[in-house]
UniProtKB/TrEMBL annotation:
<keyword id="KW-1133">Transmembrane helix</keyword>
<feature type="region of interest" description="Disordered">
    <location>
        <begin position="1"/>
        <end position="69"/>
    </location>
</feature>
<dbReference type="Pfam" id="PF00287">
    <property type="entry name" value="Na_K-ATPase"/>
</dbReference>
<comment type="function">
    <text>This is the non-catalytic component of the active enzyme, which catalyzes the hydrolysis of ATP coupled with the exchange of Na(+) and K(+) ions across the plasma membrane.</text>
</comment>
<keyword id="KW-0812">Transmembrane</keyword>
<dbReference type="GO" id="GO:0005890">
    <property type="term" value="C:sodium:potassium-exchanging ATPase complex"/>
</dbReference>
<comment type="similarity">
    <text>Belongs to the X(+)/potassium ATPases subunit beta family.</text>
</comment>
<dbReference type="GO" id="GO:0006814">
    <property type="term" value="P:sodium ion transport"/>
</dbReference>
<dbReference type="InterPro" id="IPR038702">
    <property type="entry name" value="Na/K_ATPase_sub_beta_sf"/>
</dbReference>
<feature type="compositionally biased region" description="Basic and acidic residues">
    <location>
        <begin position="44"/>
        <end position="61"/>
    </location>
</feature>
<protein>
    <recommendedName>
        <fullName>Sodium/potassium-transporting ATPase subunit beta</fullName>
    </recommendedName>
</protein>
<dbReference type="InterPro" id="IPR000402">
    <property type="entry name" value="Na/K_ATPase_sub_beta"/>
</dbReference>
<dbReference type="GO" id="GO:0006355">
    <property type="term" value="P:regulation of DNA-templated transcription"/>
</dbReference>
<keyword id="KW-0406">Ion transport</keyword>
<dbReference type="GO" id="GO:0005637">
    <property type="term" value="C:nuclear inner membrane"/>
</dbReference>
<dbReference type="GO" id="GO:0006813">
    <property type="term" value="P:potassium ion transport"/>
</dbReference>
<feature type="transmembrane region" description="Helical">
    <location>
        <begin position="97"/>
        <end position="126"/>
    </location>
</feature>
Amino acid sequence: MEPISTAGGAEEEHHGNFSPNPSAEAPPGKHAVSEALEEVQEELIEHQPLEQEDLNFEKWKPKPKPKRTLHEKAGDVKTYLWNAETREFMGRTGHSWFLIILFYTALYAFLAAMFGACMWCLMLSISPYHPTHNDRVMPPGMTMSPQLDGHYEIAFNASDRKSWKKYAKLMEEQLRPYNDAVQEQRNIQCPQDAYFMQDEQGESAERKACQFKRSWLGECSGLQDPHFGFSQGKPCILLRMNRILGYLPGHGTPVNVTCGVKKGAPESLGELQFFPKSIFNLMYYPYYGKLRHVNYTAPVVAVRFNGLQYDTHIVVKCKLNGKGIINDSPTDRFLGSVSFSFDVGA
């Protein structure tokens, strides 16, 4: 071995298995450069294109789970319904079920009580006898009878009893409440051509109703002719004005009724007769509602068609006429008028 002289002049011997530490001897700047080179190499490795093996996505897919047998699934359901180890029913213990049932019972009891209180307050503000707010009263509509299943078509042969018997039966049912004995028992005689005002009575007091006797309908009453003219080819119909609470039709003048041909020759309608008159008398108004006007009998106008042309389809329109009445609405065919048809054969 050769001596190595140091800065102090001393000599040191180096054994053969001695290797110097380059990092310890390298200057600090050199060490920083090496670290920077390593970082650059790592970045280059990250930006290298993927190998074909890396693009094989199949190996990254999760492996399919083994199929469970029906017995295993049934066991899971059974465990879910009742777990004997944890003593849970459908995933909850008895204490948990008690708390959740108590919570929802209290919640829905509170909601029901709040809803009931709101309805109670609402009912206190609403009168069962008349509307609380009634800014606009629509004009009355008009209906007719007899009608079968809502069809405004009257078709029959005068010589065929079966063809018109159903119409006569409906007329009889409609006029039964108008029997003279019933009217005299329930209702009173009223002065005609004047409104029968009863506003001075208490709100819940029962109002009296005026008589409308069946015998006033003459040949359309069914008393003289139980067939109501159908057997003679001269049918009768009944016209009613819809009830409107508190409504005063005509503004002091009776509302009258007119009928004419809507489609067809005017002469095919023939002569018309109105019973008792072609007006709705004012004494039947105003209407106070079914809770107070218990025995109220709506007035009717009976129309007898004495000269209908046989084997002809005739469309007839009857309408109300008076102040405040609308009878030509393009959207509501029952507002102030009603249309129906006749097909009469011998």
